Amino acid sequence: MSINMEDIPGMRVTVMGLGLNGGGYASVRFFASHGAVVTATDIRDEKILAPTMEKLADVPVRYVLGRHELSDFEQADLVIKNPAVKWDSPHLLASRRIETDISVFLSLNTRPVLGVTGSKGKSTTVSALHYILQKQYPDTDLGGNITVSPLSFIDKKTGDPVVLELSSWQLADLKDLSILDPEIALVTNLMHDHMNHYASMESYADDKRRLFQGQSPGHYTFCNYDEPWGRSFYNETPGIPLYFSQNRLPSSVEGAFLDGDDGYFRKDGSECHIVPETLAIPGRHNRTNILCGAACAALYGVDPHIVTKGAAEFRGIPHRMEKVREIAGVCYYNDSAATIPQAVTQALESFSGRVHVICGGTDKECDFSGFAESLRDASVYLLAGSATDILVKDLVRLGIPYHGPYDSLKPAFEKARSSARKGDTVILSPGAASFGMFLNEFDRGNQFRNLVLEL
User: Fold this and answer.
1) How far is Cα 193 from Cα 48, in angstroms, rounded to an integer?
2) Which of 41 and 367 is assigned the larger pLDDT?
C-alpha cells in the first residue's frame, strides 16, 4: 500500500532510530512538517543525539530516548524503520504498518531514478555520477545509503534525476519492488561482506538483486563483467543488460570498459571516450568506480565531452581514499569506509611509496584470507578488536611485523606519524567494522581527519 500526501496530516508516525546520519532526522522533519503527529524514539540518549535534536527545534516532535516504548509502536498508524533494525524486533512485530524513508520516497517520487548497489565502490560511484549529471542537469539530487535521506528533497519541484545509493539492508526492507523501477541500475560488485547478518553469499546476493528485479523492460542494468555474480545478474535482469569492466570488453559486448587508464562507453555499435587518463583520486578501483558513474551519465544522455570533463574534475568523497593533507612530504589519507579486507588491499595498491596503514577493528565475519599477505610491504599499526585478533594470528604466522594493537586511534596515529618520512603515505584503512571503539565508520574517519588537521 503506497503513501499519499493527503493521508499524512494527523497521521501518528513513530520514527524508530533518530540517529546522527540523516535518515531519522529527514523522516521526522518530513512527516512533522506535513502535519503528522511524530514520535522519535532511539536507544541512544539525549546527550548523544543532541546535534540531531537541535536541527529539529523548529518542528513539533515528541522524543522517547534511551529506550523504546511498545505503546509507541502499537498505537502508531505508521512506523518508519531504521535499516539496521531486524524485522523480528518485538517493537516492529507490534506495529500495524512499517515503511522506511526509502519506501516512502519511492511511493511519492515522480522523478527519474538511477540506482546503485554493491559491496564496495557504490558511494564513490554515485557521487561521481551525481557530480557529472549536475553539469547538464543542475537539479540532480543524491541520496540513500550515502547518509542523505531522499525525503530531504522529496518536495523539490524538478524533473531532473535522482541518484540513489542503496545498501542490501535498504533493498531488503522494500516489501513492494514495483515502487523501485530505476531507469538505470548498477551493481558495482559482490564481495564477502556482512556475513554476520547473512546465512550465505546467495542470500546476500538475493538482496542486491532487488535493485533490478522491479525494472521495466526498457530500462538498463549495468553488471560487472569481471566477476561471476555480475555475469549472473546480467542474465537475470528484466531490464536491458550492459557490462562494465576494468579491461576492454569483447567487440560484441556493449557497456563500459577501461583500456589502459582511459575509459570508454560502447552502445549501438559506437564508442565514446568518457574517462581520461588523469584523475584527481588515486587507485585502479576508483578509476573503475568513476567509469561506472561516467557510463551511467553517458547512458542517461549527458554529452560525452561533459562526462569526460566531470570525470577528470571529480575529487572523491569523505572517508573513501580522502586525501586530508600533505605535511613535510607525507600524505595522509582517510579511508575509513574500507570496512572489508579487500578494500584495504585495493587502497595499498594505489600507492607507489612506503605506506603506513592503520587497520583492524571489529569482525563482521569477513573473508580474511590473503589480508595479512597484502600488508607485507606496509608498516602496520593495529586498532584493537575481534577482527584484529584474527589478523594478528596470520601476521605472526607469516612473520610480518606490526605495532599495537592500540585501544584507541590516537596512539596508533602518533606512532605512524612519527615513523613516516618524506614521500611516505599514512592511511587509515581498517578493513573491519568500527563498532566498539567508535560510534560508526564516519566517527572513525572524522577522528583521523581531526588528528591530521591538528598537526
Assistant:
1) 28
2) 41
